[in-house]
Amino acid sequence: MPAEGCVTLVTTILGIDPGAAGAIAQISPMIGVWRMPKSDRALVDLLQMFDPNTTRVYLERAQAMPQKAARDASRGFETGTSMFSYGVGYGVIRGILAARRLWYREVPSATWKADMGLWRKPKSASIEKARELFPEALDQIGKSDGRAEAMLIAEWGRRKGEQQPMFGRAS
Question: Using an 8 Å Cβ cutoff, are 16 and 150 in contact?
Fold first, then answer.
């Protein structure tokens, strides 16, 4: 932890698209993209790579989507179990971020998507946008909308997130 009164500049920006098909993306100081780990322990191990004093995390906020649940149910999909699992996974992510003392901000998908010109556009538009903004990461993005959206959430944080330096650890 830096000495009291010292300013610590943010050097690492992460974006998290939660869910089984989601991902974690780092866009600064270098680019890295990881599939959402399948276990809590693997998520802890991944997030231990990042220094709480210099990292900002932007996490897409989980939200209820009753219209999607009704549409999925009408198509014969099991919705209650998957929605519950998603909510538990989201809570685990928040808990690990807090336990690691990593500063994070939840951002609604409508907010970051509108600011990135993707509101009400298909997932393929997110892939195209991420490839446009990060041409050096084409292989890492692949055809995964989860990876693309994690990168775009991080980019949203870089552009629109808190700009002031961090002082010590986030509480």
Answer: yes
